[in-house]
Specification:
This protein is an alpha/beta fold. 39% of the residues lie in helices and 16% in strands. It contains 5 helices and 5 strands, in the order αββααβαββα. Strands 2-1-3-4-5 form a 5-stranded mixed beta sheet. α4 links the parallel β3 and β4. α1 runs parallel beside α5. The radius of gyration is 15 Å and the shape is globular. The relative contact order is 0.16. The C terminus is likely disordered.
């Protein structure tokens, strides 16, 4: 089986695809218990006109379609930015075993930064979480994206943008 670094690099590849499409560069991959990437996704809420078009949701949808099951038991999600509330809820409902994220999201992160949805007692499923893997690379990609946007005369701060996840 490949290392977590390998899979996070594949998530970073997805983030670069989002950036190339003009979206906030967040990417995700879902890996099954055998180590195969079964789902891929990158941020596309703007291009898809879909408020749920976050990288995690798109990767979960891809994996569920490929595996013909909405429950992704034993799978791991690798994502370049800490998931938001919507994505954390979807992760729980998909019954993922583990989430590995790169950069923390201090404004909207619902894994550890703002709250920990996975630790709530009312959920009957527990998700293991690891944060910080290749965080520097992910954060640099996000910072470069927002710096370029500001340079193009959009004069918005990253804080004014929609949630990056």
């Amino acid at each position: 089986m490949r290392s977590d670094n390998y899979y996070m690099h594949r998530a970073l590849d997805q983030a670069r695809a989002a950036q190339a499409a003009g979206e906030v560069p967040v990417g995700a991959v879902v890996v099954d218990v055998a180590g195969e990437i079964v789902g891929r996704g990158y941020n596309a809420p703007l291009g898809s006109h879909d408020p749920s078009g976050h990288a995690e949701i798109r990767a979960l949808r891809d994996a569920a379609a490929r595996l013909a099951n909405y429950r992704l038991d034993g799978c791991t999600l690798f994502v370049t930015l800490e998931p938001c509330m919507m994505c954390a809820g979807a992760i729980i409902h998909a019954r993922l075993a583990r989430v590995v994220y790169a950069a923390a999201e201090p404004r909207t992160g619902m894994v550890e930064s703002r709250a920990n949805l996975f630790a709530q007692p009312w959920f009957n499923h527990r998700v293991a979480v690891e944060g910080g893997l290749l965080a520097v690379q992910s954060r640099r990609l996000l910072q470069a994206f927002f710096a370029e946007r500001r340079g193009q005369g959009l004069h918005e701060s990253p804080e004014a943008d929609e949630s990056p996840s």
